[in-house]
């Protein structure tokens, strides 16, 4: 096993991932997963559950195995496939069916973040289990059908563009390493950035803070990234020309890292454009999208309760 990443700070690590669960993520046998501990991965020994790891550490170990066969590697490639598609497909209206439901066999009740009823480019066709203006979290889940329309745009203010480029360059040059980060460290993005690591939440928060310091109105936005695998995503938004403009340094970085067919165009699409696979949620800035009843972040397996599928691309006509 290779561990070329920064492990979760010990004061923020959550040791709740069993050896069997780690093996499932790595697509190996438990004995193979146990090599993580031999290689130096922090862990705890529980008298009942055995060896326990921090989930983010296991994901980062899996992402860096290099064979493309681990669950996180496959999931990341699948989730980014749309970046390699035709650029028109990033903005074309798509009708999505999205359900948030507790997982079968998991008795722990969960609270799911509610999609923002006022999000730009989102037209709700069905909001089963949700009031029209609902915000915050829903305890028993919900199902919606929404038509999401992207929009190409590029921020015009050169200072905004320069800050975006600075954050993106830190990722692409390796000064700050993109990796999975748990909610505890996400809650302190400045610390994560100083440690030299970032995910979408950290990078978006750092960019928003820098823009706010320059006098711009900017915010971190969190929501669901729609596709075959339930996932969360975060990005920065800045107010320009009467609208919130998304700035997504992590998507821009991943498109470059994967050298997708249209990576240059996709990187530009992340400099103010709105993408048709992102569903913003109506929760406070940097709030987790799934909570336990006591208000703490839900375990990572909870995102298996988010299911989404494109029911049909919307037909666009000249008169639409």
Order of helices and strands: EHHEEHHEEEEEHEHHEHEEEHHEEE
Task: Supply the CATH architecture of the largest domain.
Answer: Roll
- How many domains, in number, for the residues? 3
Work out the number of β strands: 16
Largest beta sheet: what is the strand line-up? 6-8-4-16
Query: Could you please say which CATH topology of the largest domain applies here?
Result: C8orf32 fold
Shape label: globular
Largest sheet: 4 strands, antiparallel
Which spans have pLDDT < 50 for at least 5 consecutive residues?
Answer: 315-320
State the name of the first-level CATH class of the largest domain. Alpha Beta
Distance between the termini: 54 Å
Question: How many separate helices?
Answer: 10
Structural class: alpha+beta
Helix content: 25-40%
Can you describe what's shown?
The chain is of the alpha+beta class and 320 residues long. It folds into 3 domains: 15-76; 87-150 and 298-312, no CATH class; 158-280, C8orf32 fold, CATH 3.10.620.30. It contains 10 helices and 16 strands. The chain has helices at residues 19-26, 30-38, 55-63, 71-79, 158-172, 183-186, 189-195, 200-213, 249-257, 263-269; strands spanning 15-18, 44-46, 50-54, 94-100, 111-113, 122-128, 137-138, 142-148, 177-178, 197-198, 218-225, 231-240, 243-247, 278-280, 290-291, 306-313. It has a 4-stranded antiparallel beta sheet, with no helix packed on it. It has a 4-stranded antiparallel beta sheet with strand order 13-12-11-14. A 3-stranded antiparallel beta sheet has the order 1-3-2. A hairpin with a 5-residue loop joins strand 11 (218-225) and strand 12 (231-240). The chain starts with 14 loop residues before the first strand and ends in a 7-residue tail after the last strand. Mean pLDDT is 91; it is low at 315-320.
């Amino acid at each position: 096993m290779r561990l070329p990443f920064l492990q979760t700070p010990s004061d923020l690590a959550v040791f709740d991932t069993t050896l069997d669960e780690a093996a499932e993520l790595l697509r190996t046998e438990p004995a193979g997963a146990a090599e993580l501990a031999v290689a130096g991965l922090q862990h705890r020994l529980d008298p009942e559950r055995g060896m326990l790891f921090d989930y983010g550490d296991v994901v980062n170990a899996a992402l860096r195995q290099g064979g493309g066969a681990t669950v996180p590697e496959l999931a990341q490639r699948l989730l980014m496939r749309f970046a390699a598609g035709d650029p028109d497909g990033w903005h074309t209206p798509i009708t999505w069916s999205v359900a948030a439901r507790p997982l079968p066999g998991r008795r722990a009740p969960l609270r799911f973040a509610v999609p923002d009823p006022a999000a730009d480019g989102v037209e709700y066709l069905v909001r089963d289990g949700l009031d029209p203006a609902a915000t915050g979290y829903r305890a028993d889940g919900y199902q919606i059908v929404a038509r999401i329309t992207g929009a190409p745009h590029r921020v015009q203010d050169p200072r905004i563009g320069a800050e975006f480029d600075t954050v993106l360059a830190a990722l692409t040059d390796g000064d700050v390493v993109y990796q999975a980060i748990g909610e505890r460290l996400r809650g302190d993005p400045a610390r994560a950035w100083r440690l030299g690591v970032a995910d979408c939440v950290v990078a978006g928060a750092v960019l928003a803070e820098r823009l706010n310091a320059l006098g711009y109105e900017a915010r971190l936005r969190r929501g669901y990234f729609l596709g075959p695998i339930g996932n969360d995503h975060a990005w920065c938004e800045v107010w320009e020309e009467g609208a919130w403009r998304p700035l997504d340094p992590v998507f821009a970085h991943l498109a470059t890292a994967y050298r997708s067919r249209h990576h240059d165009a996709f990187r530009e699409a992340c400099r103010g454009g709105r993408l048709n696979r992102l569903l913003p949620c109506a929760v406070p800035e940097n709030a987790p999208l799934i909570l336990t009843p006591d208000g703490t972040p839900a375990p990572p397996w909870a995102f298996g309760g988010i299911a989404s599928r494109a029911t049909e691309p919307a037909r666009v006509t000249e008169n639409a």
